[in-house]
Fold:
Amino acid sequence: MAKIRMGMVGGGEGAFIGQVHRYAAALDSEIELVCGAFSSNPEKSQRSGKALHLPADRVYSSYQEMMTKELELPADQRMQFVSIVTPNHMHFPVAKAALEAGFHVFSDKPATFDLKEALELRELVKKHDKLFGLTHTYSGYPMVKEARHQVATGELGKITKVVVEYPQGWLASPEGEEENKQAAWRLNPEQAGISCCMGDIGVHAAHLAEYITGLKISEVCSDLGSVVDGRVLDDDGTVLLRFENGARGVLMASQVSVGEENALKIRAYGDQGGLEWSQQEPNTLWLKWSDRPTQMYRTGLPYVCELAAANTRTPNGHPEGYLEAFANLYMAFAGQIRALENGVEPDARSADCPGIEEAVRGMAFIELTVHASNSEQKWHKFPNH
Structure:
């Protein structure tokens, strides 16, 4: 079977996330990078493509040129989907161009610059009948899938409380932020959008809470701000949550928590039991009970659910981390493309990938938390789009 052919927009030299995408896409030998427009600077794009051993005629000066030139190639040679790894403000125009040219789209989150674009993007996905995937990476971990399974089977009973936290410390000091490419665009409202912290990591925490519990956030009460003087966008925030079943929650996201690395953690409690998972100890899921000892579930052991097992590559005791979780989403998206081409429904593993509805909810969450933080009103309903 031929590999699924991927094109990439963004992710050129000096871009952290582009290399992560390429590692993840290549991990299972299902996807091949065949072309790219790696930078808005044509020379930089060519240098990046050369470093990736791509032929010069498949390295483009702009995403518009890439769409046009790829369409001119035979169907069995042109890219099949576009991976978007640019700053936020370019996600929508690239996705729109790709969909209108007939290509599937796999995008970094948030999917768009604002909610208006996200709603338009959903209409474009429907109109052109193409696939759309979104990199909410943390849903790719096997023990996150096991946590979702434990909730879905009713082991924990009715969910009553969710606590999700995502502290980082890398933006705690303003020193060097203008020279740091990753910091500069995230703190620039013209590139990042309405939010830095909530748009960058808070939305991950919100998605994780909804993914594991199977519940949608229905209301928020938000307090966002910038700890570092002079910043226009938030670098820290706390959000009280209410879920559709009446459960309450707390979401804390911070990029100024000194000493923290990437400490995403979630605890969910039902009326029969609770669970806890930490991204920095990803192979372990804790299940907690009032009437028996706490249980430790581990990745790769025979008692985990089918979906967790299907997303595990190595024997138990071998850590599976960020790149593997990222690769699980790429593997799922490739499976969706194969299923579509064969005229069949995707299997459970392939179907388990964030898509356009998660894209819309993510953008709605970002805008709602910013709006709520600027309001004197306490609770704000999650919009029903």
Q: What stands out?
A: DSSP finds 13 helices and 14 strands in the chain. The first strand starts at residue 4 and ends at 10.
